[in-house]
Specification:
heterodimer, A: 151 residues, mainly alpha, extended, B: 336 residues, alpha/beta, Peroxisomal Thiolase, Chain A, domain 1, 2 domains, six-stranded mixed β-sheet, 33% helix
Amino acid sequence: MPKATGRETAAYQRMIVASKPKRPLAENLVWAFVVGGAICLVGQGVKNIIMKAEGLTPTEAGPPTVGVMIFLGALFTGLGVYDRLARFGGMGANLPITGFANAIVAPAMEYQREGLVLGVSARMFTVAGPVIVHAVVVAVIVGTLSHFVGK
Amino acid sequence: MGEHTLCFPTRPAILSTASIAGPQEGDGPFGDMFDVVKADTLLGEKTWEKAEVRMLQEALELCVYKAGWGLSDVQMLFCGDLLNQLSASHYAVRDFPVPFFGLYGACSTFVEGLILGALAVDGGYASHLVVGSSSHHDTAERQYRYPTEFGHQRPTTAQWTVCGAGAAALGQGQGPLITHATPGRIVDPGIKDVNDMGSAMAPAAADTFITHLADTGRTVDDYDLIVTGDLGRMGKSLLVTLLKHKNVDLSQRLLDCGSILYDHTAEVMSGASGCGCIAIMFAGYLFAEMQAGRAQRILLLANGSLHSPDTIQQGETLPGIAHAVALENSRGGDAE
């Protein structure tokens, strides 16, 4: 029995769809809202403290807040908590900047056993690499456009 | 006999088994059936790979010991795991002074080993033979999926690789006898979703099972249990449906190791998987059930998904395979 034909695959796919357990969409949405919201609440708290303590405007307080949140994301990844949070928080945990920190720190931790150069350094961006590449490419395109059109 | 099925006239016996399980497997419903349950997944080693090697080593040594042999008595060793270049097996048997064959059948490796082992024993080429296989959740995750600490939501059909190693000693003597084997052929239903391996493997399991029944003239009722490896809840329900279309009702006798190894928790989703899954469930649970006489005749139907992460990214599909061995207690002896 060689590889299935396209028609056989399509028929089997229909059978799979019929018996596939449903993704608990409502539950996932609620958890994503709670987890994502909680992370943003912490972020806002951090920002307020920085603004008060340093006497900064909201715009000025942005970058240091991001720094603190990246640190917290990395810390909770290191403590082995973040992957559990994301398992039920889904995008609520992946989307904030703490999720980005997780995507870089997790491979850095994983591959330290292959050494500092070929392990950590070479493979640190296995998860976040594509995000960075696309962000840079889009930034170049949008930046170029706005230079000529935006004014 | 028949199209693909082998019948072993001398009926090689499974003389002893050994099972080493990780902490999460130990917490499951079969926790106290395993010989050793480890307290953590690193076993005090520096890497997950070293931990898997240690588990497999311990399983092989314990199995040889329980058979009443010394390491130097073993004439052949068949072993496999999930890692690239079979590295867990190779390092585990590095210190064993024993002729060694590395096997890769993904999660079907253990039964693939039992078939080849039974061939060697039945052919008179070995009287002291050991089969083993292992898997480790974290070594599999980093090779097939994501770094272990990376947070991501698991789809409902995803499976959780078992942390464990199992081994069986084959020879002539007392113990469950290997009477028949139906080696599987690759069946590729064209599935591309690596998070749904149960669906990719179910058609292979159905194919091998139908072949086995046709070749031996047996029916589902000839077996106390038909044990699949790691189809998971998803693959199991598909196998039942696929066989129903062929007018075979398996639902009363089917036991899927992957679906029952863990308590139902959110983390494991569709169930357990990996080379260690059917290995520790057979070595720990089913072997004891047969010895206690609670099961007289069982069919191990181990399935595997033979893909690699690279071929999947290149747009390839998941080829499935399933190997079957029929075991029965000596006293149940029917004439064949």
